Amino acid sequence: MASKAWPFEEARRILKRYEKAPPEKGYVLFETGYGPSGLPHIGTFGEVARTTMIRHAFEVISDIPTKLICFSDDLDGMRKVPGNVPNSESLEASLQLPLTKVPDPFGTHESFGHHNNAMLRRFLDTFGFDYEFYSATEFYASGRFDEILLRACERYGDIMKVMLKSLREERRQTYSIFLPMHPETGRVLYVPMKHVDAKEGTITFDDEDGREWTIPVTGGNVKFQWKPDFGARWAALDVDFEMYGKDHSTNTPIYDRICEILGGKKPEHFTYELFLDDQGQKISKTSGNGISIDEWLTYAADTSLSYFMYQKPKTAKRLFFDVIPRAVDEYHQQLRAYGDQTSEQKANNPVFHIHGHNVPASTLLVPFGMLLNVASVSNAEDAETMWGFIRQYAPDASPETNPDLDQAAGFAVRYFHDFVKPTQVNRAPTEAEVEALGVLANAFQDPDLAIDLIRQKQEIKSQEDPLPEADFTDGEFLQSVAVSVGTVQGYGNLREWFKVLYEVLLGTSQGPRIGSFAKLYGIENTIALIEKGAAGELVKST
After folding, report:
1. Which residues, 6 or more positions from 130, have their beta carbon under 8 angstroms from its beta carbon?
2. 280: which residues sit within 8 A by CB, 6+ positions away?
3. Does residue 406 sit in the same domain as residue 493?
4. Who contacts 84 (Cβ-Cβ below 8 Å, separation ≥6)?
5. Is residue 206 part of a domain?
6. How would residue 542 be classed by pLDDT, with cut points 50, 70 and 90?
7. CATH of the domain at 494
8. What does the alpha-carbon distance between residue 405 and residue 374 come to, in Å, rounded to a whole number?
9. Is 364 domain-assigned?
10. pLDDT at position 48, please?
C-alpha cells in the first residue's frame, strides 16, 4: 500500500520493526495512556481514535495480529482538586491519595479514579473501539509490574543518571524514580530514597514527619514517577507503538532510554499537536476548558468527531463548538466522494480510516450549515419542523430513508438555539441595499423580471449564454437570479453582495448559496424574509 495518508506512513514504520521476524509475543501492541485526574476529554478520545486508525492501516498491510490497550495511571496521587466536579471542596482532604483511593464526588463509584475510568470506558465502548483496559492500581497490586520494579532496583543508578540530567539542581536533591505509598496514610510520597536494596527489593526513605520506613517495591507498595513510568510500561508490556501530545516530545529520549535500561525495545512514537480552547489555551482535564466528549455528541454524530481527529494531527487545532458544523459537512462530502474514487484515492480518504472497508453511504441531502440557516430564520424548535422545509427541497426524502439528514436536523435545531441564536445580530440595510433587496424580492416572484435581470447581467459580463427557463423551484435558477441582481445593482465584487444578504437576512457574515437556501426554505418564505430584512424588521430591538 503506497498511500501517503499519515496512518499508513505510521503503520509502515511499525511493520519495519518486524521485517526480519514476527514479534515473539504473537502480536503488535498499540498503547494509549490516560491520566484519570479529571473527566475524559476530547483529546483523550482523539488519542485512541488516531491510534486505532494507525492500527487499522497496519492490519491492511500486515497479517500480524494486533492488540490495543488503554492504560490508566489511576495509582497517581491527586495533586490538585479538579474544578469541574461537584462537591469539589470535599476532595481537599484527599490530596496526594491515589486516585483510586479518593472518594467519588459524583457518588456513583468506588472512587474518583474508578468513576473516571468508567466514564472513559463507557465512551470508548460507545464508539465501538476494540481495546483492552488496564488499570495501574490493579497492575501494580497484582504483581504484573514486580519484575520491572525489581529490575529498576538493580539498575537504579543508571536510571537516576538519565533522570538527573533532565532536572534542575534543587529538584535533583529530592528526586527518586520511585514513589512509595505511605504505609499508614496511603498517600503517594514524593521523597528521596535513603537506600535502594536491589538484593532484597526494598527501598528506605523518611516520610514528611522524618520517620524512616523500609518497604518492598513489589505488590503495589511503590509506583514509578511519571517519566520513568512511561519507559517501564513500554519495557514491561513490550509496547510497539504509543502516541502522545507535543508536551511530551522533549521527554521522548528519556522514556526511550529508561525502556532500554530495563531491557525493553523502545516503541515507535507519534507526537501530535495539542488541542486548544476558544482562548487558545491547552485543553485540560482538570480545568475542564474546551469542549467535552458529551458536548460534541449533543450537536453532531460521532463520525464527525472522528473526522475532525483525522485532520492534520501534527497541526494545533482550536477545538470548540464552532468547528462542529464544518466537520459534519466535510465528513459527508468525503463520504459522497468515496464511492467513485480509485483504490488509491480511497486509501487517502479520511472516511476509509474512520470506517475501514465498510464505508457507509451518506444520506445527508442538505448540508448541516444550510440546516442551521433554516433553523435560524424559521426559529425551528424540533426536527419535525425542519422536515417541513426539507420536504420542499427533497420531496422523496424521509427520516426513515435519510437517517443522517433526520439526525442532523435535530442537531441543527439544538446547535442554533444554544450557540447561534444568543449571538445572532441582523443589521439594518442601507438605502442602496434596501433598493437591491426589493429588486431581489420582486425577481423571486416575477419570471419576466428574473429573466430580464439575467439578460442584463450577461450584457454587463459580455456573455452570450442561452437564457434559462424561469423555474422558481430550481435552486440553480434562483442562484442565477440572485447573482444577476447583485451584478445589475453595481456590486462588482459579488462577495460583498452576498455578505449583505447574510448580514441582513441571516445575522451572520457568511452563509449558504442563496439559491439552495431559497429552495429549502421555500420561495414564499424567502421572499417574506427578504421583505422583512429590507424593512429592518429582522433587527432585534435593544
Report:
1. 52, 68
2. 318
3. no
4. 38, 39, 286, 287, 288
5. no
6. very low
7. 1.10.10
8. 14
9. yes
10. 92
